[in-house]
Amino acid sequence: MVHINDLALLFIFIIICFVKNSICLLPPEFEWKVIDFAWQAGHKEFAIASNAYIPKNNLPTGIARWRDKLFITIPRWKRGVPASLNYVFLNGSHQQPLIPYPTWADAFVPDGAKSVSTASTVVSAFRVHVDRCDRLWVVDNGATNICENVRQIAPPAIVVFDLKRDSLKYKHFFSDAVLRDSTVFSSIAVDIVDNDCHNTFAYVADMGAGALVVFDLQHDTSWRLEHMHFQFQQNASEYHVGGIDFFWHDGVSSLALSQTASDGYRDLYCYPTSSTKMLKISTKLLRNPHFTPQDVKHGVEVVGEKGPQSQSTACDYDPKNNVLYYTELSKNGVGCWNLDRPFNSENTQLLISDCVALEYPNDIKMDFDGNVWILSDRQARFLYDKMDFTQINFRVLCAESTALIQGTRCQLSMIERAIAYIKK
User: Fold this and answer.
1) Where in the cell is it found (predicted)?
2) Would you say residue 139 lies in a domain?
3) 26 pLDDT band (50/70/90 cuts)?
4) Please, are residues 100 and 107 in contact by the beta-carbon 8 Å criterion?
5) What single-letter DSSP state applies at residue 343?
6) Lowest model confidence (mean pLDDT) among 1-15, 70-84, 360-374
7) What pLDDT score does 148 carry?
8) Phi and psi for 253 in degrees, rounded to 5?
9) Nearest-CA neighbor of 92 among 32, 26, 165, 162?
10) Is residue 374 part of a domain?
11) Structural domain range at position 311
C-alpha cells in the first residue's frame, strides 16, 4: 500500500526534477487543432462560402496578456483570415474560439476588400504589446494575402487601443520616409518615459528591410535607423524546424527593453531572426531624431553571439529577475540570459524544449504578474509543407518566471544578487 507520506515525497521529487532539468514540458494553457472564431449566428457559413474564412489559412503568431484577456494575432499570410487582432479569456476553455478585437465590425476584413471598415481595423499584425498605461500597441502592415498575391489595402500604421474602454486611442500612419518596398513590420516595444503615459516612444522592427523605426507619441512623428547588424547574416539563413529545411533572410525582428538606468535611459535588446548576434542600443540614441550616421555606427553594440542554430523570432524581458527570454526555433524551445552576467554560452541556457509542444516557438511575452507566455504554431509546416488538422497545431504555454529559472544559469546566487543590487 502507498502511504500519504510516500506520495508527498514523490510529488516533491517531481517538482525538483521539473525545476532542475532544462528540458521539460509545460502543460498548455490553450491549444487548438484549427483556429476558429466566436461567430455570430449564421455568419460562419457565409464567411466560408465567400472565402472570408478559410480555416487552414489561419496561423497565430503573437500574444500578449492584459488582465483576464490574452490577445492573439493572426497575420493575413493568405486569404481567409477574418480577423487579425483577437483575444480569448484566461478563465475560458482551453480550446475556446477567438473573439475579434475591438469588435467584429472593426476587425472583419472580407475577401477582396479594397479598404478598411473603420479606423480601428487592424489589417495584418504579427505581434502586439501591452503597456502599464493599459494600452494595446499594434503595428499594422496594412496588407493582405502576404504570401501569395499581396494587396495593400491600408497604409502601415501604429494602432493604440485603450484597453479599459476597448476603443481606439491613437493611430499613426508611417510616412514614405520610413518605409521601403520590402518593409514588413514584426515586433513593437514601448518605452514610457518618467511614468508619463503621453511621453512614450515605440520601437518597431522592420524585419523585411532590416531596420528600426522609432515613433514619438508626444510629437506624433517617426524616424528610421539603419545599421549593418540589423540585416540578416548569410551563415544564419538556413533553418531546420519540424523536419523541414528552409532559408530566410529576415532582418531585425525581436525587441525587448531593459529596466530604466540611473541616467533615465534603457537598453533595447534586439537581433535579426536570421542572425546569431545579440545587439544592444541605448534609448538615448533611439529617442533622438537628430542622430548622425556616426551616432548609429557607434551606438549599436554587439553584446555577444548566441551560437549556431540559434535563430529566434521573439524575446521579452523579466524586470524582477533581470532575465531576457528568447525563442529557439531550431531547438523547439526557449532560452534565457541574466543581464547581470556576460552574454556567452556559459551564462545562457535552453530552459525548455519539446519537439511537439514547442515546434516553432513564435512568440514569448512577460506579463505584469511575472509569468512567461509562449506561443508555438508549426509555422514552417504552414509555409513550406502542410498542416495536419487532426492534431494539435497551436499551443499557448505559461510558467511563473522565478520558478522557471530556479537552479539554472539564469538565476543569480545570493552573492551575485547582492553585488548586482550594489551596482544599481
Assistant:
1) Secreted
2) no
3) confident
4) yes
5) S
6) 1-15
7) 86
8) -140, -20
9) 32
10) yes
11) 233-423
Counting the structural domains of the chain, the total is: 1
pTM over 0.70: yes
- Looking at this protein, which amino acid is placed at residue 88? V
Residue 373 belongs to domain with CATH number: 2.120.10.30
Q: How far apart are CA 87 and CA 381, in angstroms?
A: 24
| Strand ranges inside 61-120, DSSP E | 62-66, 69-73, 85-89, 99-100
Number of other residues whose CB lies within 10 A of the CB of residue 49: 9
Exposure of 238 in the CB half-sphere (CA atoms within 13 A) = 2
- Exposure pattern of 118-151 as b/e (b: 16+ CB <10 Å)? eebbbbbbbbbbbbebebbbbbbbbbbbeeeeee
Q: Does 156 map to a domain? A: no
Residue 342 lies in a domain: yes
Q: Can you tell me which residue has the cell 526557449?
A: 334
* CA–CA distance, 409 with 407 (Å, rounded to integer): 7
Between CA 314 and CA 321, with CA 317 as vertex, the angle to 5 degrees is 145
pLDDT digits (tens, 9 = 90+) for 359-371: 999 999 999 999 9
3-state secondary structure at position 136 = strand
Nearest to 363 by CA among 318, 335, 308, 326: 326
What cell numbers appear for 81 in the block? 483570415
CB atoms within 10 A of CB 292: 10
